[in-house]
Amino acid sequence: MMLALLASVTMVAQAYAWDFSASGSASATFDMTTTAPEGGDAITEQSFSGSSGAVSIKSSHTDGDNSYTLTYKADVDTDGDTLGSNIGLDQTLSLAASKKVGKWTASATASQSLMEDGQTAAISGDDGAVITLTDGSMTHKLGDAAHLSTAEKAADTTAGGAVDAEARVDGFKGYSLGMAVGPGALTIAVDMSHGTATKLMGDLTTALGVDGQHTGFGINFAGNVGADLTFTYATGSAKAHAGGSQTASANTMGLGVNVPMGTFALAIDYEASTWTDPAETTTTQSGFEVSTSLSEIADGTVVVNVSSQAKKVGDGEAATTAGTELGWKTPIGPTSLEIAYGTSTTDAEVVTDIEVEMTFSF
After folding, report:
1. Which pLDDT score is estimated for 114?
2. What is the pLDDT of residue 7?
3. pLDDT on residue 119
4. Which residue among 36, 67, 327, 358 sits deepest, i.e. has the most Cβ atoms within 10 Å of its Cβ?
């Protein structure tokens, strides 16, 4: 029914210079993973798989400085658990628009979830929105968005092994102001929310278990300072409402640097994060990720990634994870082929992963 309606709208819209398009993707993979626990026998698992990405049908229109894009998207969700089911069809209908009046351009997307995990009851996602307003020198964002960058620059492969080192930020409902500063752009963000399970900038927990108010602030700088550099820092805390003494806090910092040198590129990511729960237990997490990329190797690109992360909870011993990845990726006609090896080592086990993946987007 939804597809028939969208097709009808598209045919009528052609008379008003709307463009129609459709897109999708597919991937096929061979994976071999070996897990060797400390003091136990290693287990090797091998498998072939194939999967398709979301299918999107779009119709777009431009009228001077104003533009509109209508999108219907269908995707089978196999890892979500929105309504207590691990599998089901997600359907979304959205209209993205950009309009300019004077020197100001506003943009937003009205996105409505039609179905989640094959059900229409208790739909919880895809109805958030952010309004972006810019005059070319300042950009305001109000609403639900990824206001700050994770500051990641390191390249990795399709194999498992690398440990992310990044500013622990995600999408959140807040406000941000971006402006040009020197050789780059500076973004200042404010995060305010209330409830029992609040988070700093959408990621690190400041949950109190009781109703409380969370307030957070963050900055992000991205620019070319002789190297492609991104820096993000965010800090915030939550306090129980009147009558409660519970508090929680969190802060995170991420630095990413990428240095391209012709066919060779060196990238470094660094992270330092801390969060304290209402019981005054502090968790600290730090790590790094270093990658080198070299193109024009047998018509492809070779990537080497080395990473490490240390996490300490309270007075306990720090748990360390070390990761290494090596991969080669090349285009073959309209497809992309990647062969990769990865290994992840902790005090408890060593996991190695060999993966061959072919992808095709259309």
Report:
1. 85
2. 55
3. 73
4. 327
Phi first, then psi: give them for residue 334, nearest 5 degrees. Answer: -85, 0
What is the predicted pLDDT for the residue at 113? 85
State the average pLDDT for the chain: 91
The pLDDT value given to residue 115: 81
Strand partners, 301: 329
* Residues in the chain, total: 362
Q: What contacts 226, CB < 8 A, 6 or more positions away?
A: none
Which residues of the chain are under the pLDDT cut of 70? Answer: 1-16, 78-86, 121-127
Q: Which amino acid is at 130?
A: V
- Strand 184-195 with 212-224, pairing: antiparallel
pLDDT in tens, 333-345: 999 999 999 999 9
Show the tokens assigned to 189. Answer: 């963000």
Structure tokens at 295: 């193109």
Cα distances (angstroms) measured from residue 218 to each of 107, 134, 168, 174, 192: 23, 20, 11, 11, 12
Task: Give residues with Cβ within 8 angstroms of 102, minimum separation 6.
Answer: none
Q: Which residues contact 241 (CB under 8 A, 6 or more apart)?
A: 194, 210, 211, 212, 213
Q: Looking at domain 135-362, does it have CATH number 1.10.150.130?
A: no
CA 216 – CA 191 distance, rounded (Å): 5
